Amino acid sequence: MAEEKENKEVEEKEERKSSGSKLLLIIIIILLLLLLVIGGLVAYFLLSGNDEPQDNQEPQKIEKKKKVTNMTEIGPIYPLDTFVVNLINSNASRYLKCKIDLELDAPETQQEIDKKLPAIRDLIIRILSSKTVEEIQTSKGKEKLKEEIKRKINEILTTGEIRNVYFTEFVIQ
Asked: Per UniProt, what is the membrane topology (predicted)?
């Protein structure tokens, strides 16, 4: 009898072990399936989320292309002679040598610029000579200088306007 009791206890222990291992195996399988489903959903949302920014990037590329095509629609160019001016500097004598081309809105504006050329050159010389090296050395400084020249010349003109100012030579020494 003692042996039968021991045999029954051993069998019960084995059944518990096998039922416990079956339960553990079922839990592991369920967790793996859950991870696969969650991973699939994450992948789906990440991949489908990339389509929207690409759609947004395409119009930006188109806009850039439009800007480039606007460069092909440059108006008439009026080249000015070279300017050599002293720059404001407290330490040493510095000068600027630059060549400027003006982009006009219409060919008729050339006639007005021809008539007012001495005044325009004087205006540009006064603007350039009022600057320090530090003001015009950076690209932002050059852009501000272009805008100032354009604005001041457009104040003088009556029939047309200057669209843009181009530095074709720019040397500071």
From this structure: Single-pass membrane protein
CA–CA separation, 80 vs 97, rounded Å? 13
pLDDT of residue 20: 74
* DSSP 8-class letter at 132: B
Residue range 60-108, pLDDT digits in tens = 555 554 444 456 678 899 999 999 999 988 777 889 999 999 999 998 9
85 and 156 in a common domain: yes
Angle at 171 between CA 74 and CA 78, to 5 degrees: 25
What's the CA angle centered on 97, arms 134 and 160, to 5 degrees?
Answer: 95
CB 165 within 8 A of CB 103: yes
Domain that holds residue 13: 1-73
| Nearest alpha-carbon partner for 119 in 144, 66, 167, 155 | 155
